[in-house]
Design a protein that fits this description.
Radius of gyration: 22 Å
CATH superfamily of the largest domain: Transcription elongation factor, GreA/GreB, C-terminal domain
Mean pLDDT: 92
CATH class of the largest domain: Alpha Beta
Order of helices and strands: EHHEEEEHEE
Oligomer: single chain
Number of helices: 3
Helix content: 25-40%
CATH topology of the largest domain: Chitinase A, domain 3
Low-confidence stretches: none
Number of domains: 2
Structural class: alpha/beta
Strand order of the largest sheet: 5-4-3-7-6
Largest sheet: 5 strands, mixed
CATH architecture of the largest domain: Roll
Length: about 160
């Protein structure tokens, strides 16, 4: 099994932007805040200093985390994919078998998931159920707290 993490081009760009912000904006700002807090004297009882050091630790941890995610990323551009099967990066339109309601989801990496934008993680129950399916296929999804749901694949797009 590969340690690579699938990620769309958009998700990869978003992480690169976050890393740039962490290194070029947030890291220097917190260093300046630490220097300023140090200038206030006794570090044992200096809440500003301790808060700044805590934030610095968080920023450094996040930099390492983002760098690791970028290093392990397997970047996939959905617009270069073709076919009629649901795969990572596909945008899938489904119809709820019970309500007739239509929903549209793009299957993306863990860090890219955003239900408001219709982006679901490839580990989400709906995404797992849809993987490998084609237009016309009916899948039963076990949803936490909501029981089983029957969905019909109406459209598979790569945008």
């Amino acid at each position: 099994m590969s340690d690579r993490e699938p990620m769309t081009v958009t998700g990869y760009a978003r992480l690169k932007d976050e890393l740039k912000d962490l290194k070029s904006v947030q890291r220097p700002a917190i260093s300046a805040a630490i220097e300023e807090a140090r200038a206030h004297g006794d570090l044992k009882e200096n809440a500003e200093y301790h808060a700044a050091k805590e934030k610095q630790a968080f920023i450094e941890g996040r930099i390492k985390e983002v760098e690791s995610k970028l290093a392990l990323a397997e970047v996939i551009d959905p617009s270069t994919l073709t076919g009629d099967k649901v795969v990572f990066g596909a945008t899938v339109t489904v119809v709820d078998g019970e309500s007739g309601e239509t929903s549209r989801y793009q299957i993306v990496g863990l860090d890219e998931a955003d239900l408001k934008e219709g982006k679901i993680s490839l580990t989400a129950p709906i995404a797992r159920a849809l993987m490998g399916k084609r237009v016309g296929d009916i899948v039963e999804v076990k949803l936490p707290k909501r029981g089983n749901k029957e969905l019909e694949v109406e459209k598979v797009e790569f945008v």
